[in-house]
Amino acid sequence: MKIAVIGAGSWGTTLADMLARKGFAVTLWAYEADLVERMRRARENDLYLPGVSLAAGLDFTAELATAVAGKDLLLLVPPSQVLRVLMQQAVPHIAAGTLVVSASKGIETETLQTMSEVLEETLPTSLHSRLAYLSGPSFAKEVAAGMPTAVVVASRELEIARLVQDVVSTETFRAYTHTDVLGVELGGALKNVIALAAGVSDGLGFGHNSRAALITRGLAEMTRLGQAKGAQAATFAGLAGMGDLVLTCTGDLSRNRSVGIELGRGRKLKDILAGMKTVAEGVKTSLSTFRLAQKLGVEVPITEQMYRILYEDKDPRQAVVDLMARDLRHEND
Ligand SMILES: NC(=O)C1=CN([C@@H]2O[C@H](COP(=O)(O)OP(=O)(O)OC[C@H]3O[C@@H](n4cnc5c(N)ncnc54)[C@H](O)[C@@H]3O)[C@@H](O)[C@H]2O)C=CC1
Ligand SMILES: O=C(CO)COP(=O)(O)O
């Protein structure tokens, strides 16, 4: 099977390396042409996955058309806000019958569309039944180090999910199948917003009680919004929901949680982002999720406060006061 991985950030590079080690012919497309040159020479992604020696058989290119042409499977791992433009450029070169798997976690800010909605709008209808989504608790660094990891592969067609499950699973990377595409992709996107909030709480010096409250009430609002959009509630109790939420709200490797910690300590968003070359998807997804929730008439109190901290420069301490002062209610309302 010939595979192209689109996006050579830490996650795309890790997955490309994993699949190349499994014996597939893998081409990794990077946005940065100079990075391609360095990866070819040193077999290391010094920008996004330093210290990991990449598989001998892994191929690199900065040409998107070359990357996608003649492949059996495309694994899409760019930041979610650029998926649309990349697909618009790639479409004329994608062969009929290609499997297309998205592993990005986010919601477009302009359209409020999820990755499945973006792909269904940009790819020809003939490819829609060949689409799948990879999500779940998976820090790239830990996967690259071969640490046991469990993820979900969702597709509306169970057969396609099974096919992709077989392709991506290894001795240390265990994929489960799912058919709730929306639930699986929303779990991955929405947890980043809650992870930012958990970071803010840590940065403010709050403790385990606060974090547990944010995780649990965060899951409640993720589920509520997901259901309003047509996802199944049970999906949010699985790897792509609860699993990834716990990972990113507690793990020191989370970029979203790290950004939240800095905000909680009083740093300004633009200063934090200026020093970052990696993507913290939750920053943009806070904006899209808050707008989406308003559009659907769903209450998302934690996301709303995160949006106000990020986009209205609200003092994080005031955000906590406002969250705690909301009307008292039943847990399941
Ligand atoms: N890193 C991780 O542990 C995991 C990341 N993800 C998701 O994977 C996606 C990619 O994230 P990472 O691999 O972590 O990226 P990263 O933060 O390591 O690197 C940034 C990436 O953005 C690309 N980029 C920047 N500007 C671009 C542009 N204008 N056009 C195209 N590409 C551009 C860079 O080339 C690079 O690939 C995100 O949606 C993230 O949420 C999902 C699971 C795990
Ligand atoms: O999605 C991730 C792990 O599943 C990575 O989280 P961060 O983007 O917060 O690092």
Automatic annotation (TrEMBL):
Name of the protein this chain belongs to: Glycerol-3-phosphate dehydrogenase [NAD(P)+]
Active site residues according to the UniProt entry: K191
Locations listed in the record: Cytoplasm
UniProt cross-references to PANTHER family, sorted A to Z: GLYCEROL-3-PHOSPHATE DEHYDROGENASE, GLYCEROL-3-PHOSPHATE DEHYDROGENASE [NAD(+)] 2, CHLOROPLASTIC
Chain's role: Catalyzes the reduction of the glycolytic intermediate dihydroxyacetone phosphate (DHAP) to sn-glycerol 3-phosphate (G3P), the key precursor for phospholipid synthesis.
Sorted UniProt keywords: Cytoplasm, Lipid biosynthesis, Lipid metabolism, NAD, NADP, Nucleotide-binding, Oxidoreductase, Phospholipid biosynthesis, Phospholipid metabolism
InterPro entries for the chain: 6-PGluconate_DH-like_C_sf (IPR008927), 6PGD_dom2 (IPR013328), G3P_DH_NAD-dep (IPR006168), G3P_DH_NAD-dep_C (IPR006109), G3P_DH_NAD-dep_N (IPR011128), NAD(P)-bd_dom_sf (IPR036291)
Gene designation per UniProt: gpsA
Residue ranges of domain Glycerol-3-phosphate dehydrogenase NAD-dependent C-terminal in the record: 180-320
Residues that, per the record, bind sn-glycerol 3-phosphate: K105, G136, S138, K191, D244, S254, R255, N256
Top-level taxon of the source organism: Bacteria
Organism: Geoalkalibacter halelectricus
Residues covered by the Glycerol-3-phosphate dehydrogenase NAD-dependent N-terminal domain: 2-159
